[in-house]
Amino acid sequence: MTEAPFLRATRESYDVLAAAGAQLIVGGDLGELPLDRALLTAFAEWVAAAGGGTVADVGCGRGLVTRFLTDLGVDVFGVDLSPEIVALARRTYPDLRFEVGSMLALDLPDGCLGGLLACYSIIHVPWEYRPRLFAEFHRVLAPGGQLMLAFQIGDEHRHFEELDGLPIALDYYRQQPDQVVELLERGGFAVRVRVVREPDGMGKPPHGCVMAYKPV
User: Fold this and answer.
1) Per-residue pLDDT tens for 89-135?
2) CA dist., res. 194 & res. 211, Å (int)
3) In this structure, are residues 30 and 64 in contact, taking their beta carbons and an 8 Å threshold?
4) Of 46, 60, 142, 178, which is the most buried if we count CB atoms within 10 A?
5) Could you give the domains of the chain?
6) 117, 83, 97: which is closest to 7 by C-alpha?
7) 69 C-beta neighbours (distance < 10 Å), count
8) Residues 170, 13: contact at Cβ < 8 Å?
9) What are the start-end ranges of the H helices in the chain?
10) 61/86 Cα distance (integer angstroms)
């Protein structure tokens, strides 16, 4: 299958940022993520309640969430489009498993996962690719498998050609929770939770989280 055009630009941009040690990539810890630890804990508990199984952290970045879920006892591995990001994650957490891969074409057999989460990684996927993306997530999840998506809320599409003085070509697509829910339900998922985290007064947008599962 021909690679989607945006994937190369996203991969190369994150390779540049990771190789240069950009603060966006290498700095901070899980406490700085806008996603609540409570939501990740709930996701881990639902995976266990549904029978467990391996979880894929898709678009794992430097592996913060992969580490957090591992510490909760989840059998989880990270997947990221950028080889440089994966190399960084492996150096940071050498005891964890990280692989290079595309969320649009995961190198996984059908129905092999007990859970899949994409925390602020679908934001680089053009809106028109979301049905294909969610179909791929549905394919790799086992019946009863849990899905968790986190994203910034909005209708904007923004393009960046520079960050920290480095040349990139990154697109960001914000999401509306109701649209995400509709697409997931259309793609065969049952939605369990939708959460909106309101702006913090510091100029940042609201954040959304949708949790769903593949019906048995």
Assistant:
1) 999 999 999 999 999 999 999 999 999 999 999 999 999 999 999 99
2) 6
3) yes
4) 60
5) 5-213 (3.40.50.150)
6) 83
7) 24
8) yes
9) 5-19, 23-26, 37-49, 64-71, 83-92, 130-140, 177-186
10) 7
